[in-house]
Amino acid sequence: MAATTSAAVTESPGLETQRKEIESLLQEHELCAGDTWYLVERRWYEQWKEYVVTGDQNSSSFPGQIDNTELFEELDSYHLKERLVENEDFVLIPAEAWRNLLAWYGMVDDQPALERKVVDLPSTVKVEVYPVEIFLCLHSNMENVVTAQFSRADHIHTIQKVMMKQFDVVEGAETRLWMKSSDTCCERLRNVHVNVLDSSLSSGMTVIMEMRNEDGTWPSSRPQIIRNSVEEQESYRGQPGVCGLTNLGNTCFMNSALQCLSNTPPLTEYFLQSAYLEELNFTNPLGMKGEIAEAYADVIKQMWSGRHYSVVPRLFKTKVGHFASQFLGYQQHDSQELLSFLLDGLHEDLNRVKNKEYIELRDADGRPDQEVAEEAWHNHRRRNNSVIVDTFHGLFKSTLVCPECRKVSVTFDPFCYLSVPLPVSKDRVMEVFFVSLDPVAKPVQHRLVVPKAGKVFDLCSALSEMTNVSVNQMVVADVFNHRFYKIYHADESLSCILDRDDIFVYELSSGSVEGDEVVLALYLRERSHYRDSGSGSSSCGTSLFGHPLLMAVPRVQCSRNALYHLFLQRLA
Q: DSSP 3-state assignment of 381?
């Protein structure tokens, strides 16, 4: 950009010294990309050359202050004329020569120094006489447009800083830029570390800056809000991070992985502090040009803004499907597969290593594990260095022994995920109903912890500890539809009893069911009357109800009258 220069004129050396010094600087300096050169009006420069050869300060050839008036269209705007030709309209001098001339002769008041960068174009290295002239504005106020000039060698980050200063954007605000070439074409300037030339930004285009909203969204891509109104959502203030993710179909596999990562403090703090912006890797062929990292950052910033009941991760889902076609659509998928893709994608998008070097691995050769592990980790970090490596990667030790020569080979391999078996419980919780001999006591439900591979005897033993009833006085039965479905023997496996079965354990009066006692089943049946609406006649039927009973009865009491009295007593 043009900058107004004012400097006090210092005492000039002799004219011959001036000539030799400037000629020497012109001969010594070659065009080098990134260097600064200056435009000087040819008429003034030629007059200066004549002056230092033939004149003195009192001669008519004295050039006076540096004056570039003839190079400008209008003095008020100091806009450079179009199609100026080097060595006809102006000459180019290196920065050091310019500083000397400025110090010796000064410059016409208020004229800007015509500072220009040397740019490395695809076919040549040249001084950029005509910088890129673009229009700058904010997304929130696109009527307020500012015109600015930038060198093709300037980085997009320079434009970003100029815009933040020009539009009084608060320091630390997260911003992003859009490049607009027409009314319908608008493209993100994702990589702020590339120069203007490589970003395809040219004169006449508009650069738009937008700031992230307090709720984590961007004004240009506000997601759908699952509430009655935008105002209701904006007025909500909740606990940051305590935020739901809307199911877009069968996307619970994705939402569960996002919630797990969201509650991984080191990773979430990294994104909330916008540290990822300085580490986006746009050139990694294994990455996704930073798009997955940006999409993930948007979700995290919305979830931790404290402004949402829930977030709709539609844009993130679309981006995932774009780079991993297996996740297109809204079918159910494996959550670990999605997590694996996401962590790998974030790692490559944020890899601090721009050029991965070839590394030749060494054998352990009996070295201590600590030394071998440190070497393996160092080699891994030389090719893989990101917040994902910092947080999730580790080393897995593998030991191989040759069955013939007995040589031991130890390697340490990096990992990001470990599949570990869930602990399998050896116990089982069973619910049973205990029916006491006491005719007044109601059946009581008990929760028993028994061996998963145990026997019916083990169930009775656990119940005996709770009821103080001997195991020998218990009979275990499966009751279904008010009748006994099965009576279990003590040595039967508990695996044949399902959790949904209604298991009743009955207390009997004796531990033996042989000899003088018999075991009888008592079913409860009720008689019901109903009238046939067609014929008007009445009918009756019977149906079972309640739970059946088991009774150990002495054989001598098995007469009709004796059983009747025993049953009445039991049913008291």
A: helix
Q: Residue 96 pLDDT > 70, yes or no?
A: yes
pLDDT of residue 430: 94
Closest Cα to residue 52, out of 96, 95, 104? 104
Report the amino acid identity of residue 119. Answer: V
Give the chain's end-to-end CA distance (angstroms, integer): 105
**pLDDT value, residue 429:** 93
Distance CA 8, CA 102 (A): 8
- CA distances 373 to 377, 378, 386, 414, Å, are 6, 8, 19, 10
What per-residue confidence (pLDDT) applies to 220?
84
Give which of 481, 480, 482 is closest to 501, Cα–Cα. 480
Say whether 457 sits in a helix, a strand or coil: helix
Higher pLDDT, 399 or 227: 399
All domains of the chain in start order, with CATH: 3-127 (3.30.2230.10), 132-211 (3.10.20.90), 237-349 (3.90.70.10), 369-415 (no CATH), 427-567 (3.10.20.90)
531/538 Cα distance (integer angstroms) = 4
Name 455's bridge partners.
493
Cα(414)–Cα(411) distance, rounded to whole angstroms?
10
Copy the structure tokens of residue 66. Answer: 């540096």
Neighbours of 444 (CB within 10 A): 12
Q: Among all chains, which residue has been given the structure tokens 């893989």?
A: 384
Q: Collapsing DSSP states into helix, strand and coil, what is residue 83? A: coil
Mean pLDDT for the stretch of residues 23-45: 91
CB atoms closer than 10 angstroms to residue 275: 12
- Distance from chain centroid for Cα 412: 28
Q: What percentage of the chain carries pLDDT values higher than 90?
A: 57
DSSP character at residue 44: H
- Of the candidates 253, 436, 229, the one whose C-alpha atom is nearest the C-alpha of residue 331 is 253
User: Given this model, what pLDDT does residue 9 score?
Assistant: 60
Residue 542 in tokens = 């019977």
Confidence of residue 79 (pLDDT cuts 50, 70, 90): confident
Model confidence, pTM: 0.66
What are 458-507's pLDDT values in tens digits? Answer: 999 999 999 999 999 999 999 999 999 999 999 999 999 988 889 999 99
The CA R_g of the chain, rounded to the nearest whole Å, is 44
